Amino acid sequence: MLETISKRLSQGLIIVGATMLALMMFLTAADVCLRYFFNRPLAGAFELVGYMMAIFVPFSIAYCYQQRGHIVVDLFMDRFRKKTRVMLDIMTLFITMVFTFLIAWQNLLYFFEVKATGLTSSVLLIPEYPFILPAALAFGVSTLILLVRLIESLSEVKKL
């Protein structure tokens, strides 16, 4: 059940993330064309791209965890016995899960802090707090994904 929930959340996040990437691409292309051909760049385009990047990157990280797209050094890992590899995987998953939880928690605290201060962007005067919450959400989902993988790895140890 947790696995299904984490997969669906991850798929939703990557759809939003891919949309942000496409919007960043179109906005940047429009800004460059307007700047080059008409000498009239889009005001605030840089700010908007930065805000979209704040959504795209954490959402993509959660999807990467779901797809198991992290880097593994097979050159070293293949030399270990199966049980040793699983134990190292469990340790790595646990440590990563703790850090993603802490990142989610700190982003949530930062969200409330920025909301209370009323911080806005310099050109378009867009409030910054709505762009902090997606990072907290994405790292919360990442924590859930890592928890599911940790449970799977722990059940694999019992089979060995």
Structural class: mainly alpha
Number of strands: 0
Uncertain residue ranges: none
What is the residue-mean pLDDT, rounded to a whole number? 92
Largest sheet: none
Proportion of residues in β-strands: under 5%
Describe the protein's architecture and organization.
The protein is mainly α and 160 residues long. The chain has one domain. The chain has five helices and no strands. It has helices spanning 2-38, 45-66, 74-77, 82-117, 133-159. Helix 1 (2-38) packs antiparallel against helix 2 (45-66), helix 1 (2-38) runs antiparallel to helix 5 (133-159) and helix 2 packs parallel to helix 5. It starts with a helix and ends with a helix.
Q: What is this structure's SSE topology?
A:
Elements: H1 2-38, H2 45-66, H3 74-77, H4 82-117, H5 133-159
In brief, what are we looking at here?
The chain has 160 residues and is an all-alpha fold.
